[in-house]
Amino acid sequence: MAQALAKEIRAEQDDQDHDLSGYGASAISDLMAAAFKDPIVSPKMLRISFTVGGGKKVRQKYGDDMPKYCRDALRAIGFEEDRGACAVMECAGMYKYQHNTDTDLKYVHVFPRVDTAAAAAQAAAGEEEEEEEVKIGGMKLDELPPEHLCTIVSIETFGRLVAAQCPSFSQKRALLKALKDMSAKFASFEERMTKMQALSPEEDELYNSAQCLPEKVGDLEKQLEGMIGGGHLTRSEMDNMIRDFSEKVLQVEEAITKGMEAGKQVTKMEAARKQLEEKIDHLKTAKPVVHRRKNDREILTLRKQLKELEKIESSKGMLPLEEIKKLNQKPVIIARLAELEEEGKGWFDDAIPEKDRVIQAPPGE
Q1: Integer Cα distance of 365 and 3 in angstroms
Q2: Residue 141 pLDDT > 60, yes or no?
């Protein structure tokens, strides 16, 4: 069991999570030695996390001494414990213990020694043998912008991508705009084709790879309407929508005035104005939501630590040894903070209102 998991750990070149329920001291010792005694061939630093305990609901799955067994096994192969360790090259050969109070689970995070030179050599050899990569619209699949990717995937995959990458109203709204722009681009493709004007190879490939784009646009519009009606907007998002709807009311009223002056029917426009006014009234009385990401607590803690270090740096006079040691942790804290903030990003992260980003701790924390 330990040897099989060790092989899996060494073969994977990305961050991993493993559950050690059922492992004893001997198995843990064998696992850590087999997995981490020698450097792992990888182009980057890795984070290998092991679940080693938890609260009442899962306590029976783990022995109380499992964190100790992991510590002892890692120390035996030369690893050092550092509570500030994170997935950067400076932390190679370190580990840390964490009790996540949100999930009530206990973890040991290992940051192994890695051999980046061997990984680069393997990659170079692989590139020589690699077949030509699949491209859509002239781009590799992992280079596609969100709207391109959403255009070519199935409607089922589209739903999963939106849920995972665009959790907020602002992100979904930005994606909708991008998909509408894509629809307009496709309309221009079709207009050119009706005039017997050829598309470029990249345009033709993108056009022929598309799946259900009108249905995806319609589905996203329904999701946004549901979020407005269901009270799933933040205060900033509500303020933005009230402003946008108010501008549309003015535009509709101008169209109604012109229509009446021209002797045209304005019943539909009046109904549209009423709907907009109802949405505005609803948003003014609705209760805003507050989005909390799983890493918010740690991000806020690290920001607080950085502020404390900045105070130490700005102080005059000779610093005590303890404070110098604290300052030495600053690069690790900055790297971990950047890592957490990157993990929390989805698509169109810049569309999220600045006031909705984590700036200060929630009330009661």
Answers
A1: 43
A2: no
208-257 tens-digit pLDDT: 888 899 999 999 999 999 999 888 899 999 999 999 999 999 999 999 99
Query: What secondary structure does DSSP assign to 146-194, as a single string?
Result: HHHHHHHS-HHHHHHHHHHH--SHHHHHHHHHHHHHHHHHHHHHHHHHH
Per the prediction, the chain carries an average pLDDT of 86
Q: Report the alpha-carbon distance of residue 298 to residue 304 in Å, rounded.
A: 10
Give every CB contact of residue 156 below 8 A, 6+ residues apart in sequence: none
pTM: 0.53
Encode pLDDT of 188-219 as tens digits.
Answer: 999 999 999 999 988 888 888 888 999 999 99
Strand duo 48-54 + 105-111: pairing = antiparallel
Each residue of 83-135: pLDDT tens digit? Answer: 888 888 889 999 999 998 888 889 999 999 998 888 777 766 655 544 455 45
- Token pair for residue 236? 């900033």
Phi and psi, residue 188, nearest 5°: -70, -35
Among 63, 55, 80, 81, smallest CA distance to 26 is for 63
Tell me the two tokens of residue 52.
């080693």
CB neighbours (10 Å) of residue 246? Answer: 13
CA pseudo-torsion sign 149, 155, 158, 160: negative
Q: Cβ contacts of residue 237 below 8 Å, gap of 6+? A: 168, 169, 170, 288, 353, 356
Instruction: Reduce the DSSP state of residue 20 to 3 states and report it.
Output: coil
Of 108, 16, 22, 26, nearest in space to 71 by CA? 108
**Minimal CA–CA distance to 20: which of 92, 70, 57?**
70
Written as six digits, the tokens of 309 are 């270090």
Integer Cα distance of 55 and 101 in angstroms: 9
Q: Residue 327 corresponds to which tokens in the numbers above?
A: 């300052």
